[in-house]
Amino acid sequence: MPQELQLQVSPEIAANESLLYEYVAKSVRVSTKLVHKVEILKRSIDARQKAIKINLKVLVYLIDEKYTEQRIELTEYQNVSNKQEVIIVGAGPAGLFAALQLIELGLKPIVIERGKDVRGRRRDLKAINVDHIVNEDSNYCFGEGGAGTYSDGKLYTRSKKRGDVDRILRLLVGFGATPDILVEAHPHIGTNKLPQIIQDIRVKIIECGGQVLFETRVTDFIVKNNEIQGVITQNGDTISANKVILATGHSARDIFELLDKKKILIEAKPFALGVRAEHPQELIDKIQYSCDYRGEYLPPAPYSIVKQVNGRGMYSFCMCPGGVIAPCATSPGEVVTNGWSPSKRDQATANSGIVVELKLEDFKPFAKFGALAGMEFQKSIEQKAWHLAGETQRVPAQRMVDFTQNKVSASIPKTSYVPGTTSVEMGQVFPGFLTQIMREGFSEFGKAIRGYMTNDAILHAPESRTSSPVRIPRDNETLEHLQIKGLYPCGEGAGYAGGIISAAIDGEKCALKIAEVLK
Question: Comparing C-alpha atoms, which of 144, 151, 121, 148 is closest to residue 198?
């Protein structure tokens, strides 16, 4: 029987197979020659002490113990060309994994995506970065793969009680992701590699008889006697089905407005909002690893921080080591930021959303919009930022210390945000209460992480799409909408997920519930 060990080793040993085998041999008190295979099950970094260690959970196979390499192969998906059809609105992780699950269960998915395929999106991303032109249907948020495709591909989730995280990770590996995502404590694919995986998932859906319709925006729902009958697209085409998974993401404001207009029940939901802070990666490495030079055996350091300020949580969100800040507006006349990293995380800067939790009472100035009050609050800040930055995709920016001192920065160095920056006193972007919380919060961050509070850090505003400002209520058991039979609100946009993994899990859950009803 292979022996399971919990090890704590130096970064050099963890990175060098021969050194690791020597270390394991000593741990089990045998000759190195007798160690046949060391299989790494889990890997994480412990940087709490000056001497940084790598935590490893391993299985040790000795020379007389058989080791069979675990190969992850996709299930034999059946052909569903002539099976009952289920509409899926949105080709993000919730929609795509719902489609795969439906095929596995013998149902035909029709995936309707307002944006372009994953390759076609690139031209529109270039347009927003270089020409400041926002395509409302194809951008960092909309298009095949959803917001995560070109915003990093981080796979870490705290929502392990919601479903089988390992199943989603194994599926991703089956479609081409590195097996390392099964091992790492904070798995990450990278924006440069995720598009091919997304494309291969789409190819599989079509091979099995499913349909994927790009550049097809849903503009109406067909509802009779409180039952869904299908959808209507921007071309006036009708697509019929009595089961519809609504997985449109956290930025589909037109869908929220459509639901509200048709008096289909939705409700305002609290979310978080703030700025995106960029530091030199070298500085974050020094802070987190307590060293002058990170060395070749450690990855670029991340950070995670949370503080309570005036009764509100202020925390880091979607932290991107060795990454860049991207323009994520979905309509002209607004500025939105987000961050991403390539698979190697080898850029010179680190960035993170630094956001403050909002409460429903904060939306009172927009109460006339009812369930859309939070969305209008969010929109007002994004539009204000656009005006302050010169009505382009340039972003309001301020040095961190200057922000805490209510001082316009005399200069802003070049940052990773390609469209450029405009020096602005950030208090003009946010409501007074939010500005005050962030000023106090950054001071608290500086006390907690020595070196974090520096004018070498540049704040970009706003980071406003942390999660959906709307929840679409559904029954906890059936997952159907509380009012419309056959409509399944799903994923981030419906308020039931917060990232690639949790959205994918929610998509699968909705598919399973539909199969239960139909079979």
Answer: 144
